[in-house]
């Protein structure tokens, strides 16, 4: 099959496979500090990490005692994550799936995380809505992504404003949630000019059918 025979979804998947193959780890070997700060004090239960990449966050959650399902459409990333978990003696349920098509079980997870999943606005809204619906009542949704202000005032990250977000926009899309944190945060950097992230942490308080 040549590149011309690929559907747009397959092309994106192939691009991510290439990125993962060229850059290991894709983000860092360590869990995202925001995950540790925001989730560290929660009692472990079932967790779902969407767009898990090579598993820095999923394996950290598993180490804390969470029962983790990690989803990504890059086979390269999933295999790396699997190897990382096995090396640490950790169990993670790795799922190779496209978030644009995959629907997680509703109201099933005590924690659902999305870290740096940048999709065109309408696709993002659909993926985030399914993620929000996967959280159990009383469970937590944690979203971290490049903030829209990162374009002008931050560093790195996607340069297409359509795939960037604001905390207010994400919070406004949540129904049946108590939003506990919705803010931007500049990541630590030696020169003080790190990337600007949007962070939303919310607890599901009511079941709303989507
Ligand atoms: C920037 S990386 C972040 C990985 C991980 N969340 C982290 O913070 O280390 C984005 C990840 O999303 C995955 N991804 C992007 N679009 C996806 C889709 N439609 N379905 C599943 N995974 C997707 C990519 O393969 C990649 O691993």
Please tell me about this protein's structure.
With 210 residues, the protein is of the alpha/beta class. The protein has a domain at 28-154 and 166-176: Rossmann fold (3-Layer(aba) Sandwich). 32% of the residues lie in helices and 26% in strands. It is built from seven helices and seven strands. The protein has helices at 8-22, 33-39, 56-63, 75-87, 121-134, 150-153, 167-172, and strands at residues 46-50, 67-72, 92-96, 109-115, 135-146, 177-186, 196-204. Strands 3-2-1-4-5-7-6 form a seven-stranded mixed beta sheet. Helix 5 (121-134) links the parallel strand 4 (109-115) and strand 5. The structure holds S-adenosylmethionine. S-adenosylmethionine (SAM) binds next to helix 3.
């Amino acid at each position: 099959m040549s590149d011309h025979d690929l559907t747009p979804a397959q092309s994106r998947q192939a691009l991510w496979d290439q990125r993962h193959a060229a850059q290991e780890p894709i983000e860092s070997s360590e869990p995202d500090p925001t995950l540790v700060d925001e989730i560290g004090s929660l009692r472990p239960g079932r967790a779902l990490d969407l767009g898990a990449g090579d598993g820095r966050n999923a394996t950290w959650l598993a180490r804390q005692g969470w029962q983790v399902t990690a989803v990504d459409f890059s086979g390269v990333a999933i295999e790396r994550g699997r190897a990382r978990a096995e090396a640490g003696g950790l169990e993670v349920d790795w799922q190779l799936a496209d978030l644009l098509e995959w629907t997680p079980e509703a109201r099933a997870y005590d924690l659902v995380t999305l870290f740096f999943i940048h999709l065109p606005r309408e696709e993002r809204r659909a993926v985030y809505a399914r993620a929000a619906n996967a959280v159990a009542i009383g469970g937590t949704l944690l979203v971290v992504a490049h903030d829209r202000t990162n374009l002008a005032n931050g560093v790195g990250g996607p340069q297409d404003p359509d795939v960037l977000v604001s905390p207010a926009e994400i919070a406004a899309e949540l129904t049946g949630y108590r939003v506990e944190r919705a803010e931007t945060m500049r990541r630590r950097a030696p020169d003080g000019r790190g990337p600007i992230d949007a962070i939303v942490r919310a607890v599901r308080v009511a079941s709303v059918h989507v």
